[in-house]
């Protein structure tokens, strides 16, 4: 055996650049020669000169020991075929490398062809049975034609295995990505998820634009931009896709044909939904899509459509719930014209205060994303119980006597009862369940001196503690039948002095920050 390491000049490529087929970049197949004899490398390189398979040339890598071969296979997992000598630094160096590749690297894709100049050292039948190899050849029998046949058949097998593996990985990513899409709560979030998953399925950082055409069949071709990534990121700031943009005519073509358009480097996925929306995803992958890629993307498109329909129905139900909440609040406010936009201001201040508390790290177990989504809208139901308060009491311009005060206070319990009955029809947290907590608890005091239950501290639901501050502040700032509006300074002073007594100190702190920032902007 000749263990002399060859000069770097001997480590050359049959094809040192990617093939161009039909104007499309094609990466060469990568082959690794592992042999301690430089002459074997030279002969193999000469024998394989100019060979192509499916329009792709060969890139040859060289290693001169089992350890060198292992390092290359570890660092470059896209090697398709290894022509491996058995006897190198040890009598079984090649066999040991086979085991390490299959077991240590868990690389089941690379095709391994053993070549030996000393067949007696490793009997063919024993090796074929004991080692996961694809062929076993004596160097003397590898004529030019047989070497060609061995290489092409190995590449064909590698290509098939790679397609199966890509399909498996792609389907796994589709299932995982689709599950994430079903958890999206807005169209923008949905768009971001779709673009991210396309990149994951293709295993590239995709540059893309996702648009939607509402009301398919209406004749309108306005394409609303939902999201954009990569070199198209600035398009996310646009409401509609400009007709001058290169993607626009391609999307129109996909709409007209009602099918995806694959025209590398410009690809358009056409995704119709049952809710009469048409999604169009324009993206520019770095290389032409394989048939496996296209099949995976078509599967993902069907999942996108289902996920969007689910999101659409979710949003519609949410809007229906919000409409119901607004109707209930309007019913309570209809009789109380002096309160004006009180409930809308309460909604705004409540949502902003809750968000600020979450940013401060207050009550992290309660200030969940779901709570933050619901609490603002739920707050407008705080006085819904006033529908049962007699006009004589509700509109009295002066101070209530004891009996009238008792009647007035009943609105908290009445509102809670109304909302609790409705909330039981909805599973989990909802506008109604949080609204019921607010209605019942927004007149409770942090020190236990409030009504109707005399609850204290964190016995009072968090949503009610937030609305308690917001409701009093807004009442102080605006005219009521029994009082003139207070100044901002006096109103804030009152809130501060009641911290720890009437109000939760953490709520007060967050509220003062929000109000301070808001009035500073004004």
TrEMBL record:
It comes from the Bacteria. Residues 30-154 form the Response regulatory domain. Pfam families: DUF3369 (PF11849), HD_5 (PF13487). The modification 4-aspartylphosphate is found at residue 85. Transmembrane segments: none annotated. Residues 317-522 form the HD-GYP domain. The keyword Transport does not apply. InterPro entries: CheY-like_superfamily, Cyclic_di-GMP/3'3'-cGAMP_PDE, DUF3369, HD/PDEase_dom, HD_GYP_dom, Sig_transdc_resp-reg_receiver. Keywords: Phosphoprotein. This is DUF3369 domain-containing protein. It comes from Pseudomonas benzenivorans.
């Amino acid at each position: 055996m000749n263990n002399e390491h060859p000069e770097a000049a001997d480590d050359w490529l049959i094809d040192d650049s990617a093939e161009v087929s039909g104007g499309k970049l094609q990466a060469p197949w990568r082959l690794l020669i592992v042999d301690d004899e430089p002459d074997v490398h030279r002969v193999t390189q000469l024998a394989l000169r100019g060979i192509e398979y499916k329009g792709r040339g060969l890139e040859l890598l060289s290693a001169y020991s089992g350890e060198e071969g292992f390092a290359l296979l570890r660092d470059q997992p896209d090697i398709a075929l290894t022509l491996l000598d058995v006897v190198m630094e040890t009598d079984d160096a090649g066999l040991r490398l086979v085991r390490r590749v299959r077991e240590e690297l868990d690389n089941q894709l690379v095709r391994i062809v053993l070549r030996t100049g000393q067949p007696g050292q490793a009997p063919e039948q024993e090796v074929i049975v004991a080692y996961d190899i694809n062929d076993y050849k004596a160097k003397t029998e590898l004529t030019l034609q047989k070497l060609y046949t061995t290489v092409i058949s190995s590449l064909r097998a590698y290509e098939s295995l790679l397609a199966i593996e890509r399909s498996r990985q792609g389907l796994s990513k589709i299932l995982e990505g689709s599950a994430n899409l079903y958890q999206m709560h807005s169209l923008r979030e949905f768009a971001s998820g779709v673009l991210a998953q396309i990149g994951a399925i293709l295993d590239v950082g995709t540059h893309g634009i996702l648009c939607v055409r509402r009301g398919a069949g209406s004749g309108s071709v306005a394409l609303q931009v939902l999201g954009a990534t990569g070199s198209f990121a600035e398009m996310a700031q646009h409401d509609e896709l400009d007709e001058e943009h290169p993607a626009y005519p391609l999307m129109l073509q996909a709409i007209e044909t009602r099918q995806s358009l694959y025209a590398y480097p410009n690809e358009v996925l056409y995704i119709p939904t049952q809710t009469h929306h048409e999604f169009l995803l324009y993206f520019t992958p770095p290389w032409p899509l394989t048939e496996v890629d296209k099949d995976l993307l078509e599967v993902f498109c069907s999942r996108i459509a289902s996920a969007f329909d689910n999101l659409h129905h979710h949003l519609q139900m949410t809007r229906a719930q919000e409409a119901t909440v607004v109707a209930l609040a309007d019913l309570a406010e209809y009789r109380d014209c002096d309160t004006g936009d009180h409930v809308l201001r309460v909604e705004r201040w409540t949502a902003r205060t809750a968000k600020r508390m979450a940013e401060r790290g207050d009550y992290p177990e309660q200030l969940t994303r779901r709570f933050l989504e619901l609490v603002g809208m739920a707050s407008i139901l705080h006085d819904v119980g006033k529908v049962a308060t007699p006009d004589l009491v509700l509109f009295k311009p002066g101070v209530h006597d004891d009996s009238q005060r008792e009647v007035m206070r009943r609105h908290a319990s009445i509102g809670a009862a109304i909302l609790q009955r409705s909330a039981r029809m909805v599973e989990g947290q909802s506008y109604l369940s949080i609204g019921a907590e607010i209605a019942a608890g927004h007149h409770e005091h942090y020190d236990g001196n409030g009504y109707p239950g005399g609850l204290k501290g964190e016995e009072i639901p968090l949503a009610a503690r937030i609305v308690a501050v917001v409701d009093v502040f807004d009442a102080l700032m605006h005219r009521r039948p029994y009082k003139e509006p207070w100044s901002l300074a006096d109103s804030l002073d009152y809130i501060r002095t009641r911290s720890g007594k009437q109000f939760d100190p953490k709520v007060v702190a967050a509220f003062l920050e929000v109000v301070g920032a808001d009035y500073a902007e004004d």
